[in-house]
Design brief:
heterodimer, A: mainly alpha, two-stranded antiparallel sheet, 2 strands, 72% helix, disordered N terminus, B: mainly alpha, globular
């Protein structure tokens, strides 16, 4: 009886109207903060007489580029909603969250928990763990970023074309892309999937291999080369802001195509 | 530049403190409304277990991505999150299009606007998704679409990779060879510890660039 009451309680809590209200508040906070910094940057850009076209390009490309990954992030909400309801995953994935992190938080904060066994105590513990353990980057930025910028980053003189400094940042980008190439490549050799049922890890690890991510990586690369050719050689300037999103859609479509053929 | 930056540090820190406050409001609110507090033992175990991974991860991220994101971009991104799978590539794409150099004021402006509009796009899509959850759930959950969003990050870095590889063809060799060897020898390390792999790859590329640069090969 107690368990039944506890379970029905947590049902109301995880879908409570005030949880949705909190989600709305978090959303408004992010929008307001983003607009504030964007406005400050815009004002500064005007002082520096940066071309308006550049700012427009930045906005259009950033919005169009962010749509697909954001839908991917939203799917995380659906994945977790089974166990935690909609508002908590919505909030967690809107501020400093990531699906694999949240799932890990669920598994360490309430080991082996299932939808029917979830209690309010589990729910509040999960919410705390999710919030605390991801915060370190923000705390570190809060206390040390300014010093790091003054002591390290500012030693780099980017405008000096002859200096090595300029290459450092390019190298970081290239290293990052290569790392993600490796991420796709490694899954061809071995790929362990932690099974998720109703928004929580079951503890079952499925051993697989897949070459789909590598194919997606390479085909998106090729599509991008094609769009780049259209922009640069065929003068299709309008494509410039959308080429990344289009290449991604086509790369992802190939994954769907393979999936239809039974290859995942 | 100094003035603007100092101001951005000031506002950025206020924003970070407010952001952390808003984040904590959620679990505390659940506690207050339900009257049920967290299980302290599970809480500690959970926080410690995850922090072992995410504390060094968070520090590495600030050190690696701070220069790319610029001043206000860093504060904004470290509250709004989704750095590696969204904010960083978004900034990389924007600065590639506009053609700004890292650590210049123009770059600070471009990266701030990119992070800001990327964050706004994400929260709007999330909110729309929540509002339209009932009709959307079967579509987004369909097994046909699943592979597309499973591999969205590979699509993203593949597409983004082209421009960077095209402009720095010589630099690509070392990190690619290394990551292929790593992937063959310890695949689960590569896809399981991407923050560390990014760091290793970045350092190797810098080292390789240094050698080529000294020999005047770049």
């Amino acid at each position: 009886m107690t368990r039944f009451l506890a379970a029905s309680d947590v049902m109301t809590v995880k879908e409570a109207w005030w949880m949705y209200l909190l989600g709305g508040l978090v959303t408004l906070f992010i929008i307001a903060g983003s607009l504030f910094f964007a406005y400050k940057a815009y004002k500064r850009a005007k002082e520096l007489e940066m071309p308006k076209e550049d700012l427009k390009k930045t906005i259009i490309s950033s919005v169009s580029f962010s749509i697909l990954p954001s839908i991917g992030i939203f799917i995380g909400v659906i994945t977790m909603a089974g166990l935690l309801g909609v508002p908590l995953p919505w909030i967690r994935l809107s501020v400093l969250g990531a699906l694999h992190y949240e799932l890990m938080a669920v598994s360490v904060a309430a080991e082996g928990v299932s939808v029917s066994a979830l209690t309010v105590e589990n729910f509040v513990t999960i919410a705390f763990v999710m919030t605390i353990a991801i915060i370190w980057g923000a705390i570190f930025a809060l206390f040390f970023f300014k010093k790091y910028q003054e002591k390290v980053i500012d030693k780099v003189k980017p405008n000096d074309k002859k200096s090595f400094a300029n290459l450092i940042f390019q190298s970081v980008f290239i290293g990052m892309i290569a790392a993600y190439f490796g991420d796709a490549f490694a899954k061809m050799i071995n790929y362990e999937v932690r099974e998720v049922v109703d928004g929580a890890y079951t503890g079952v690890i499925l051993d697989r291999t897949t070459y789909v991510p590598l194919i997606v990586f390479v085909s998106s690369f090729i599509f991008m080369a094609f769009f780049d050719y259209l922009v640069v050689k065929k003068n299709q300037k309008w494509l410039e802001n959308f080429q990344l999103s289009l290449s991604m859609i086509l790369g992802m479509a190939i994954a769907v195509f393979f999936g239809l053929g039974g290859i995942y | 530049m100094k003035d603007y930056r100092a101001k951005m540090h000031f506002y950025g820190r206020i924003f970070t403190v407010m952001g952390i406050g808003v984040m904590f409001l959620v679990p505390f609110m659940i506690w207050v409304v339900t009257g049920v507090g967290p299980n302290v033992e599970q809480l500690l175990v959970g926080v410690v277990a995850l922090s072992v991974l995410y504390l060094p991860g968070g520090i590495i991220e600030v050190l690696t991505y701070g220069p790319i994101l610029g001043t206000s971009g860093t504060y904004l991104a470290f509250i709004t999150g989704n750095l590696i799978n969204l904010k960083i590539p978004c900034v990389m794409n924007a600065r590639e299009l506009v053609g700004t150099e890292i650590n210049t004021e123009e770059n600070e402006i471009v990266s701030t606007i990119a992070v800001a509009f990327s964050s706004i796009t994400t929260v709007i899509i999330m909110t729309l998704g929540v509002m339209l959850l009932i009709p959307l759930r079967p579509i987004l959950n369909s097994p046909i679409l699943a592979p597309a969003f499973n591999w969205v990050v590979s699509a993203l870095f593949g597409a983004l990779g082209y421009k960077y590889f095209k402009h720095h063809l010589k630099l690509v060799v070392a990190p690619l060879v290394l990551v292929i060897i790593l992937s063959i020898l310890m695949p689960s390390f590569v896809y399981g510890n991407i923050v560390i792999v990014v760091l290793i790859e970045a350092l190797i590329t810098i080292l390789f660039a240094r050698i080529l640069w000294k020999k005047n090969l770049l």
